[in-house]
Amino acid sequence: MPRRRCCGRIDETIACQTFIPQGYSRWPEVLVRLEELEAIRLKDKVGLDQAECAASMGISRATFQRILGAAREKIATALVEGRPIIIQGGNYTIKNRVFECLNCRHIWEEEPCSAGGKHGYEITCPQCGDLKKRRLDSGLKRPCDGQF
């Protein structure tokens, strides 16, 4: 039985998850997972070295290199062949998932995961059950157990 895949940490999900080239033909879409996009962002946009990228995502350097290689190959294929890029899914956790309840001021951390984890709009205060909350900036992070 294969080993469970590592869960990479990402800073945020993105607002725009679909890129369609002008003059789009009938090629199938290229699916880029969120942890692959995070690897591209950290290495190619932010300019971190491989060890820093891996540490930021909470994975090994070898795993980071595999994720980055897969992402670059997919994006290159989409650009060369004029295929749409769909960014979704993957096996990841989102950083900074610490909330403060606006009703009772209780502070707690959620354990998000891409597989069945709660999204921001579904999270209620564990103390009073209120939905009104704000997200706090925090370095608290926990690994996930799921896979999407």
What does this structure look like?
The protein has helices spanning 34-46, 50-57, 61-81, and strands at 8-10, 18-19, 30-32, 85-87, 92-94, 98-101, 107-109, 133-136. It is globular, with a radius of gyration of 17 Å. It folds into 2 domains: 8-89, Arc Repressor Mutant, subunit A; 93-136, Single Sheet (Rubrerythrin, domain 2). The chain starts with 7 loop residues before the first strand and ends in a 12-residue tail after the last strand. The longest helix has 21 residues, at 61-81. It contains 3 helices and 8 strands, in the order βββαααβββββ. The chain has a 3-stranded mixed beta sheet. It is of the alpha/beta class.
Fold blueprint:
Layout: E1 8-10, E2 18-19, E3 30-32, H1 34-46, H2 50-57, H3 61-81, E4 85-87, E5 92-94, E6 98-101, E7 107-109, E8 133-136
Helix pairs in contact: 1-2, 1-3, 2-3
Summarize this structure as a short list of keywords or feature phrases:
three-stranded mixed sheet; globular; disordered C terminus; 28% helix; Arc Repressor Mutant, subunit A; single chain
- Computed over alpha carbons, the radius of gyration is 17 Å
Percent of residues in beta strands: 15-25%
Described by the principal axes of the CA atoms, the overall outline is globular
What is the fold-level CATH name, i.e. the topology of the largest domain?
Answer: Arc Repressor Mutant, subunit A
Q: Number of DSSP strands?
A: 8
Helix content: 25-40%
Sequence of strands across the biggest β-sheet: 2-4-3
What is the CATH architecture term of the largest domain?
Orthogonal Bundle
CATH C-level class of the largest domain: Mainly Alpha
Order of helices and strands: EEEHHHEEEEE
Oligomer: single chain
Q: Work out the count of structural domains.
A: 2
Distance between the termini: 18 Å
